[in-house]
């Protein structure tokens, strides 16, 4: 793969000065246009040590407006990052729509290094590359532009470059013991890198391989490539918009299925005496189990979805009453903020992934994409239809990290919901819970029920199934939730730590 590019390119200083001035003008112009488009640009600069990655990135920062771009330099993971799934550190640094993020040290760095140093084998590397391809496809499906540039040097050129840097007092600090160690592993590194680039150069995010022996050449080549890719992406985006305006936007899911919710027995009840007895039992059990989970550094993510007035808040309070407030957080999900709208819809959920031993409880969640956003037309059909696989992959990343993921759907019938609305209106401290929107949503009950059924069918997996909770009786619902979480923690604590 690396032999494709012609080596030995060099650009004269006078030519470089003229071309870089023109390129800077064009980059600033396209960057200004980019600010009005609803997608980010993610630039990955990677390659061989001594290939000029730092110089190229410095030139990009010189040519572009730094107010609307950011350079993200990631090296070894911190303790905080190691306690979360691998991609957490990348999600939290993704650029907002209309801006540019330049990564030096990306999601490719660790898998390549791990394989070169034989800390993982080929199947494990392939699994990492599959997850990377899934991440990039997820981002590009949401219109993000990913530009990947690999700066290559032949071995003799790398030796020469490192010697030049080490000889000059002004640059000797840039040559580290790790660089010298990497030089000794050059052949192994190139073999792994060729495999990685081959497996991850996709139509949605291809690699550009740039010969890096001449910094002026590589800087101009990368800058021109970024300019052309942004231009093309803007044009493709505008073409899609024009085509969408002429297309029929009423596409509907073809999945017709059995109504899972109708199978629930909503007559299930607990009397108050039995409820208090069981609540005391399971809250005591949860208190003990949550402390053991903290000691074992095993985290939990609990997702609560359900009809308006189904009792999600009451169930959450019975859980948190039994846990140490220092070790959990409850995240109520409402309409996204301007900052959240400027990122992929999963971004705001990645931000709250708990550290080791902690618990995050979501009162509504990422499933809004396939529920309210679907029913209310806030997401296009293509967006919510692909969200099922995006959500499953997201949850699989949590599970692979050893995090407990539990998903509760609290179900009540149409009549019970109306009765609860009326009761809330009569209680002064609950009146704030009722809005005109709650009543308006009742008119779309059938649409929401269809969406819920499809959500359950398409996102219940063996390791992360939906727990459907009969919630017409709040006592029964609360005990079912807290008991299920206790059982899940017991099972998790019996398993070896991942």
Description:
The chain is an alpha/beta fold. The chain has 20 helices and 10 strands. Helices cover 52% and strands 12% of the residues. It has 2 domains: 225 residues, P-loop containing nucleotide triphosphate hydrolases (Rossmann fold, 3-Layer(aba) Sandwich), CATH 3.40.50; 234 residues, Rossmann fold, CATH 3.40.50. The two termini are 36 Å apart. The N terminus is likely disordered. This is Polyphosphate:AMP phosphotransferase. Pfam families: PPK2. It comes from Methylomonas subterranea. Keywords: Coiled coil. InterPro entries: P-loop_NTPase, PolyP_AMP_Tfrase, PPK2-related.
Major sheet summary line: 5 strands, parallel
Give the C-alpha Rg: 27 Å
Low-confidence stretches: 2-8, 248-256
CA(first)-CA(last) distance: 36 Å
Strand content: 5-15%
CATH architecture of the largest domain: 3-Layer(aba) Sandwich
Order of helices and strands: HEHEHHEHHEHHHEHHEHEHHEHHEHHHEH
Query: Can you tell me the overall shape?
Result: elongated
Tally of individual domains: 2
CATH topology name of the largest domain, in short, is Rossmann fold
Domain Polyphosphate kinase-2-related: 12-233, 270-492
InterPro entries: P-loop_NTPase (IPR027417), PolyP_AMP_Tfrase (IPR022489), PPK2-related (IPR022488)
Pfam families: PPK2
Protein name: Polyphosphate:AMP phosphotransferase
Please outline the helices and strands.
Blueprint: H1 13-34, E1 41-47, H2 53-63, E2 69-73, H3 79-82, H4 88-91, E3 100-104, H5 109-116, H6 122-141, E4 145-152, H7 155-167, H8 177-184, H9 186-200, E5 207-211, H10 215-246, H11 272-295, E6 300-306, H12 312-320, E7 328-332, H13 338-341, H14 347-350, E8 359-363, H15 372-375, H16 381-400, E9 404-411, H17 414-426, H18 436-442, H19 445-459, E10 466-470, H20 474-494
Parallel strand pairs: 1-3, 1-4, 2-3, 4-5, 6-8, 6-9, 7-8, 9-10
């Amino acid at each position: 793969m690396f032999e494709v590019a012609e080596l030995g390119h060099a650009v004269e200083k006078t030519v470089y000065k003229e071309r870089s001035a023109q390129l800077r003008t064009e980059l600033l112009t396209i960057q200004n246009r980019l600010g009005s488009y609803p997608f980010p640009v993610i630039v990955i600069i990677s390659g061989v040590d001594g290939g000029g990655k730092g110089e190229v990135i410095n030139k990009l920062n010189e040519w572009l407006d730094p107010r609307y771009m950011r350079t993200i330099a990631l090296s070894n993971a911190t303790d905080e990052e190691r306690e979360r799934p691998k991609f957490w550190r990348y999600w939290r640094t993704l650029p907002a729509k209309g801006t540019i993020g330049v990564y030096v040290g990306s999601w490719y760095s660790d898998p390549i290094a791990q394989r070169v140093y034989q800390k993982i084998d080929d199947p494990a590397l392939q699994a990492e590359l599959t997850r990377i391809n899934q991440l990039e496809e997820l981002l590009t499906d949401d219109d993000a532009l990913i530009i990947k540039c690999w700066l290559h040097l032949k071995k003799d050129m790398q030796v020469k470059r490192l010697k030049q840097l080490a000889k000059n007092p002004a640059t000797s600090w840039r040559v580290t013991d790790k660089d010298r160690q990497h030089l000794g592993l050059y052949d192994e590194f190139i073999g792994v890198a060729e495999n990685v680039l081959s497996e991850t150069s996709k139509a949605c995010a291809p690699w550009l391989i740039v010969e890096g022996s001449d910094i002026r050449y590589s800087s101009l080549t990368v800058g021109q490539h970024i300019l052309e890719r942004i231009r093309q992406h803007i044009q493709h985006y505008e073409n899609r918009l024009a085509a969408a305006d002429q297309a029929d936007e009423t596409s509907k899911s073809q999945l017709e299925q059995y109504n899972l919710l109708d199978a629930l027995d909503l007559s299930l009840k607990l009397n108050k005496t039995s409820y208090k007895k069981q609540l005391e039992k399971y809250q005591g059990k949860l208190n003990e189990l949550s402390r053991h989970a903290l000691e074992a550094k095993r985290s939990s993510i609990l997702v609560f979805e359900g009809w308006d007035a189904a009792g999600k808040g009451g169930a959450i309070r019975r859980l948190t009453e039994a846990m140490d407030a220092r070790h959990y957080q409850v995240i109520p999900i409402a309409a996204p903020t301007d900052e959240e709208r400027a990122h992929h819809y999963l971004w705001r959920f990645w931000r709250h992934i708990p550290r080791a031993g902690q618990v995050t409880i979501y009162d509504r969640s990422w499933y809004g994409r396939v529920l309210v956003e679907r029913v209310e037309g806030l997401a296009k059909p293509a967006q919510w239809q692909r969200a099922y696989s995006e959500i499953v992959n997201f949850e699989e990343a949590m599970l692979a990290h050893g995090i407990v993921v539990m998903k509760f759907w609290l179900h009540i019938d149409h009549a019970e919901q109306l009765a609860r609305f009326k009761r809330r209106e009569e209680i002064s401290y609950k009146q704030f819970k009722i809005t005109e929107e709650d009543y308006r949503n009742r008119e779309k009950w059938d649409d929401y029920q269809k969406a819920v059924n499809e959500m359950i069918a398409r996102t219940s997996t063996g390791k992360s199934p939906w727990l459907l909770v009969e919630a017409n009786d709040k006592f029964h619902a609360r005990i079912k939730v807290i008991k299920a979480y206790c059982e899940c923690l017991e099972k998790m604590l019996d398993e070896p730590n991942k």
